[in-house]
Design goal:
This protein is an alpha/beta fold. It has two domains: about 1-100, Rossmann fold (3-Layer(aba) Sandwich); about 105-220, Rossmann fold. The protein contains eight helices and eight strands; from the N terminus they run βαβαβαβαβαβαβαβα. The protein has helices at about 15-30, 50-55, 75-90, 105-120, 140-155, 170-180, 200-210, 225-245, and strands at about 1-10, 35-40, 60-65, 95-100, 125-135, 160-165, 185-190, 215-220. Keywords: Lyase, Metal-binding. This is Sirohydrochlorin chelatase.
């Protein structure tokens, strides 16, 4: 029997966990798989091993492990695969299929544009967009944001730059300073985040702490947008087809 195990990041903020669970409940209604469970990478139970155990107890002999992550980095490349390897030793008769994160996709660029247009002042002629990512030391993350910037520019956003909360440069403070100096009347800041929790508060504090030449407008994060449900369904379908092809 097939199962899907959704792997969220986990958060100390209860509202963040609640929002993810609500989003995944909507997704589960549209994914026609008999066993579906939720687990977390850190801070929240059940963890991945507990999630896999629940799937097996419910009768799963094939588990799609689907990360709820925006981009591929350390969690996607090391942490979750490591947990799957542990599970294989415990459950040698269970097949595990590892799904892809959301990744760079037109649907997500559409959400970024939606967030921009929610706050955009059409009277402002001299503007730029600053996309704020979590950050990672993985070069693939930097390439992904470069691709996202190019996709936004192809959609008519002429001036786009990127900064990061940690582990990559420019960091948030430097990104704000650079954007402020680049002759823009308004800088629209779009957080590349799923949840408006602790990191959003950090962005707000950084904006308020600086003495900037430009006017900053903080947009909403991506959030658990309905378009992400369609993208998640696509990732699960891809994983299912890949697993069936490999098994045939």
């Amino acid at each position: 029997m097939l199962a899907v195990l959704y792997v969220g990041h986990g958060s100390r903020v209860a509202e963040g966990v609640h929002q993810l669970n609500q989003f995944l409940a909507q997704c589960m209604d549209q994914v026609h798989v008999p066993i579906q469970q939720i687990c977390y990478l850190e801070l929240v139970r059940p963890d991945i091993q507990e999630g896999i155990s629940r799937c097996v107890r419910l009768g799963a002999d094939c588990v799609i492990v689907q990360p709820i992550l925006l981009l591929s980095a350390g969690h996607d490349k090391r942490d979750i695969p490591g947990e799957i390897e542990k599970a294989r030793a415990f459950y040698p008769n269970v097949r595990f299929i590892y799904g892809r994160p959301f990744g760079v996709d037109d649907r997500i660029v559409d959400i970024l544009l939606e967030r921009l247009h929610e706050r955009r002042d059409k009277r402002t002629r001299n503007e730029r967009v600053l996309v704020v990512g979590r950050g990672s030391s993985d070069p693939e993350t930097l390439r992904a944001f470069s691709e996202i910037s190019a996709m936004l520019m192809k959609r008519g956003v002429s001036r786009v730059s990127v900064c990061y909360m940690a582990a990559a440069k420019p960091l948030l403070k430097e990104g704000l300073e650079l954007a402020s100096k680049q002759a823009a009347d308004k800088v629209y800041i779009i957080p590349y985040l799923l949840f408006s929790g602790v990191l959003m508060k950090t962005i707000k504090k950084s904006i308020e702490a600086g003495d900037h030449q430009a006017s900053f407008v903080l947009c909403r994060p991506l959030g658990y947008h309905p378009a992400l449900i369609r993208l998640l369904r696509k990732r699960i379908e891809e994983a299912t087809h890949a697993g069936l092809s490999a098994h045939s």
